[in-house]
Amino acid sequence: MAEANMNEARRRALYPAIEPTRAGLLPVSRLHTLYYEEVGLPQGLPALALHGGPGGGITPEMRRFFNPRLYRLVLFDQRGCGRSTPRASLEDNNTWALVEDIEKLRRHLGIEKWLVFGGSWGSTLALAYAVTYPERVRALVLRGVFLLTRAEILWFYQSGANMIFPDAWERYLAPIPQEEQADLVDAYYRRLTSADPATRLVAARAWARWEGETISLEGPSALPPRFDQDDFVDAFARIECHYFVNRGFFAEDGWLLAQAPRLAGIPGAIVHGRYDMCTPIASAWALKKRWPNAHLHIIPDAGHSSTEPGIASALVRVCDQFAMEG
């Protein structure tokens, strides 16, 4: 039965490409203005899709996990990302500002409760929002759970994933002198916040390429095109490293997992690739043990990317299920 269910999940393709029905700009502080868009049925089940990174920005593919005849889907570029302004700004850019931005957007759109969907960093932000405003969350759909712990950061950016991708790791190390390699995140942060644009760009390209080459089991051949675009990688690497240097702006290491009891009563689905090298499945497993209302879908032949066939199919399936349940 489990194999039959998995085969059925794999037949669930992404929904066809779709354009927003509405887009706008929302000032959320004296400095930051967010770009947001809505997709699908205005009277549909409200849902919010949170992009990854931090610093990633929304993509057209994010719209395609939701049935546009059933959902009113909202997406937005987080502070400093995509079409939000100012681009790549680190000022007043932290987890708790983003949580409050989500609330401002919800009130602006007149939504009482919504399903919150997020992958990778998007799962981190979704959880931070849900434990802060549980009464506003109808359900959670998470992919590639990332709790932003020190262990996770060390695994991917210092020692762990390098054992699996030694070729890509050499390219990641290249901008950093050997005497600074004992703390690679800190070494990158100094360069990504440099006043010299050329120094920033070299570091940003290497930082982003490391992530781009490891998010899928297909390896470097699956590198998303935007990971070769200088405007994207500058904001992506700079903002992401800023959050990691600051440990996600959480009060203590492991804070997010410790808050899991606040999710009681919120139904959820977790979709995680067995061979996710960016955010190892141990974090999803730990979260599931503390959140009985969530169902964990382990995809046996997938890595981290949301567009890998098994992961994409499972995400579409669980979003369809939540829409049918209302």
Key structural traits:
326 residues; alpha/beta; Rossmann fold; 2 domains; eight-stranded mixed β-sheet; 11 helices; 8 strands; globular; disordered N terminus
Describe this structure in words.
The chain is α/β, with parallel strands linked by helices. The protein has two domains: 2-149 and 249-325, Rossmann fold, CATH 3.40.50; 151-248, no CATH class. It is 38% helix and 16% strand. The chain is globular and about 55 Å long. The model is unreliable at 1-10 (pLDDT under 50).
Provide a concise account of the structure shown.
With 326 residues, the protein is of the alpha/beta class.
Could you give the topology of this structure?
Layout: H1 2-10, E1 22-27, E2 33-40, E3 45-50, E4 71-76, H2 95-109, E5 114-119, H3 121-132, E6 137-143, H4 150-157, H5 166-173, H6 184-192, H7 197-214, H8 230-245, H9 255-258, E7 268-273, H10 282-290, E8 294-299, H11 309-325
Parallel strand pairs: 3-4, 3-5, 5-6, 6-7, 7-8
Antiparallel strand pairs: 1-2, 2-4
Helix pairs in contact: 2-3, 5-7, 6-8, 7-8
Number of domains: 2
Q: Give the CATH architecture of the largest domain.
A: 3-Layer(aba) Sandwich
Q: Which overall shape is indicated by the principal axes computed on the Cα atoms?
A: globular
Reading off the top of the CATH hierarchy, the class of the largest domain is best stated as Alpha Beta
**Low-pLDDT sequence parts:** 1-10
Radius of gyration: 19 Å
Sheet having the most strands? 8 strands, mixed
